[in-house]
Amino acid sequence: MPASAANNRPEDLTARLGVGAGAAQGEALLKALREVKNQIIGNKTKKLLYLHLGAVPKIVSVLAAAGSASDDSGGISRGGDAAVIVQAAAAIGSFACGVEDGVRAVLDAGAVPHLTSILSHHDEKVVDAGARSLKMIFQSELAPKYDVLQEENLNFLLSLLDSDNENVTELAASIIAHSCETNEQQKALCDAGVLLRFVSLLGGSSNQKDGCLESIAAVIKNNTEVSSRFSCTGNGKALNALANLIQDRYPQTRLLACKCLIAVGHASPCYVEELQIKTKLVLVLVELLEEPGRVGNEAPFSLKTLIADDEELHKQALSVNAIEKLCSILQMSSVQARRLQGILLALAELCSKLEKCRCQLMSPQVLNLIVDALKHDCMDVRVAACNCIRNITRSLKNLSAGCLSSEAFIVRLVQLLHDPSTSVQIAALGALCNIVINCATRKSVLIKCGGVSQLVQLSKSMDSVLRSKSVLALRNLMFLADITDKEFILKELTLCTLASLIYDSECSIQEQALALISGLVDGCSQSVKHVFAQDSIILDAVMRQLQNASSIGVCIQGMFVLSNIAAGSESDKDTVMNYLVPPQTDSCIPSFTIKFLQSKDILLRVASLWCFVNLTDPASVGSSRRVARLQDAGIVLQLKSMLNDPCLDCKLRVRMILEQCMELETAQA
Amino acid sequence: MSKKVITREEWERKLKDVKISKKDMNKLVMNFLVTEGFVDAAEKFWIESGTEPDIDLATITDRMAVKKALQSGNVEDAIEKVNDLNPTILDTNPQLYFHLQQQRLIELIRSGNVEEALEFAQEELVPRGEENQNFLEELERTVALLAFDDVKNCPYGELLDVSQHLKTASELNAAILTSQSHEKDPKLPTLLKMLIWAQNQLDEKAVYPRINDITAAILEDPAV
Question: pLDDT at residue A80 above 70?
């Protein structure tokens, strides 16, 4: 009969719940509770309805009353009370299942202590009901956390773990997994023998196994001491148990066992070091990718975590056809968001190092699917798709071959620069940074679809990560761009903004800005004029940062800017010369020039040397003049001392400069 | 490519060499009875063969009561029983819950109670579709039944078949078994599948006496 039938209307039923006048008693109360319970189980709409009618506090009060009544009668429970408790507990558990408001209502009504107290009831059905409902509550983030550092809490949990009732031990495992946050708590649990107990419970039913595995992972997570102690337990008995479980008949158990071993491997690598076990984990996880439901959704995340940054494991994954499997799932219709995110992240990880992996993803079907994912409703999927593209485009071979030139990619990525989520913007920037290197077609697509103005906009963001990546993208865009594009970019960016980026609070951004200027003037005599425009605002900024020398990277990029300018006209060379070797004579203050030449950093020495290579170019009229100044300033002496520089590149540049100097001297003489 | 020919004599000789223990066979039978829920048969078999069931027979009784209620068309009773057994099952299996509600609607339609059916569809099934888009297609088909006078012979008439019942009953049975940490599939079908697969594989390489009818399990001489 539908709920709307006469006396089973929600309002009527709710009215009958509760304690005291107005509420039903005995059999009628039991019936009402049961009816409400049966209506709400599985039914989100009904749960919300009864929530709004205020059913939860009433049911909790019934539980409280019935629970204490059982106690009062000296442990001899009247059958009716037990039945009422069971129904009330079940209803409360159901309210807490899958409905956040329900969890809140249940917690606010103070259900947890009452449910906890019935765990020691002598009627097994009551214990089951209480344990199940509490387990449901503790699956929510909103549930309270047990401070296991408090002795009575810890003892309580230990008593639960000792129970014969599987629902109770599973509950204990659930609470521990939920509450275990700090290293101290993990240690306390380990000291109390909780991990040992879990290992022994691994011999139980599959539900119990799963609960224990989740808890073990939570107690071990990122805790080297606990993980090591666990791994040593019984001469590796515990680890063996886990290793066996990765081949359990149930996919869920296999996945959880893998997660456990991965956690051990992260926290105490020496215990999961052998390639053999890691290879097995790769194999198991790759197989689990095809499982339906939650297991298949979570498997790619675990795979990614396992192989992260490990080229050897990337190769293993490749050898068991991980990419094919991931791509085939990608090609299925209507993949759930979580699974899609996992697949894309796993693909991105695999493409992060190996060229072979990137090539495998170059098929039009796969690329189209990744482009589609760029406009997915779920933000996490969009980020994952961007990461995928960013890593695929690390392939110089594929970039050069003109793959990914299609407008769709770039236009989509530029659209994501406007995304409401910062994480998506950052991820899109990452992908664009790679894409715009080295290909005129792609650069012009980006420029045509308004990408530059958005990049400029982001370069003024308050968020330093956004600033940094957008400036990097602009730098890459500028690199080897043609003159028209260079001018366009600079016009959008404005000298003012560029100067302020050179003075940015973050060194890394200063570096990128300087590198951008390097790219601007590189091989392009017409572009050099911008450096002197507006009262040399840019050149001044460069010089000031060189003098501040806030970081090696900044100095390196600054010197490259100067060396690129010095590759230009006579007057450009003289300008640079004046900056590097100020025309004060008898100056006791060593200019930064000599300091840089003496730097321990190879690249800084190289960058500085290039300046002098260009300044002493024999083809230039004023070079001999400049060489004389270099001699006076002691720089030639410094260079001679570098003839045996340990770095080959430096040695060659030094030789080049000194040869040029000699050539100029001979010419003069 | 010529295939190897194996005569019946050779084949029977090879078969004779394969040893299978009675104990193993008994276990398989018990596993089948227990998983499918044949309590009385399982009890009798236990007594007669001495084979212990790997599950508490009491739990089977509960499970079978649920199945019986469902099969006699009393879906509401089945739901109440499964909620008594373990209230978390339907809460954590939305698809199963939807199918049970769907079955309720089908029973109302079958009994010709159109008004009540409409009310039920409105109040119980439509919200399921709203909560979860995956159910919409099936929901539409079921509700469409209400548009036809001759329900049994309409395009979606198969929903009224016993097969629909059995599907839902099987789904429910599996969910209960899983909640009890018991494997939801009996081993026997897997073995038979293995047999058929192995024969198919061998067909590509040899000609040999085949089992074509697994219920009869007779070796049939290969067609020449």
Answer: no
Using CA atoms, how far apart are residues A453 and A472, in angstroms rounded to an integer? 14
Read off the pLDDT of residues B29-80 as tens digits, 9 standing for 90 and up: 999 999 888 888 999 999 999 999 988 888 888 888 998 899 888 999 999 9
Of A666, A565, A668, which is closest to residue A607 (Cα–Cα)? A565
Question: In angstroms, what separates the C-alpha of B138 from chain A's closest C-alpha?
Answer: 17
Nearest CA among A368, A415, A418 for reference residue A389: A368
Rounded CA Rg of chain B? 23
CA B203 – CA B193 distance, rounded (Å): 15
CB A39 within 8 A of CB A5: no
Q: What is the DSSP string of A443-468?
A: HHHHHHTTHHHHHHHHTT-SSHHHHH
Interchain pair B123, A4: CB under 8 A: yes
Sign of CA pseudo-dihedral B141, B144, B150, B154: negative
CA distance A136 to A103: 9
Alpha helices in A118-236 (DSSP H): 124-137, 151-161, 166-179, 183-191, 194-201, 206-220, 224-232
For A382, list phi and psi in degrees, rounded to 5.
-60, -45
Q: Is the pLDDT of residue A13 over 70?
A: yes
Which among A559, A567, A568 is positioned nearest to A650, based on CA atoms? A559
Measured between CA atoms, the residue of chain B closest to residue A204 is: B181
Q: Is the pLDDT assigned to residue A505 strictly greater than 80?
A: yes
B71 touches A at CB < 8 Å: no
Which one of A36, A41, A202 would you mutate to disrupt binding with B, by most B Cβ within 10 Å of its Cβ? A41
Minimal Cα–Cα distance from B72 to chain A, Å? Answer: 16
Instruction: Please check whether residue B155 touches A, CB under 8 A.
Output: no
Is A590 at the interface with chain B, CB within 8 A?
Answer: no
Label residue A106 left, alpha or beta by phi (over 0 means left) and psi (-120 to 50 means alpha).
alpha
CB of B80 less than 8 A from some CB of A:
yes
pLDDT of residue A4: 47
Handedness of CA A199, A203, A204, A206 (dihedral sign): positive
Q: Quick check: A80 and A117 in contact, CB under 8 A?
A: no
Going through B142-222 in order, the beta strands assigned E by DSSP cover 206-207, 210-211, 219-220
- Minimum Cα–Cα distance from A40: chain B residue: B91
CA A115, CA A132: separation in Å to the nearest integer? 10
Residue B133 sits at the chain A interface (C-beta within 8 Å): no
Classify A447 in phi/psi space as left (phi over 0), alpha (psi -120 to 50) or beta.
Answer: alpha
Paired residues of B219 in beta bridges: B211
Q: Collapsing DSSP states into helix, strand and coil, what is residue B27?
A: helix
Give the distance, in angstroms, between the CA of residue A56 and the centroid of all CA atoms in the same chain.
Answer: 39
* DSSP E strand stretches across A225-282: none
Residue for token pair 């190769």: A315
- B127/A4 CB distance under 8 A: no
Long-range CB pairs of A147-156, under 8 A, 24+ apart, other chains included: A147/A179, A147/A185, A148/A176, A148/A179, A148/A180, A148/A185, A148/A188, A148/A189, A149/A184, A149/A185, A149/A188, A154/A188, A154/A189, A154/A192
B108, closest residue in chain A (CA to CA): A1
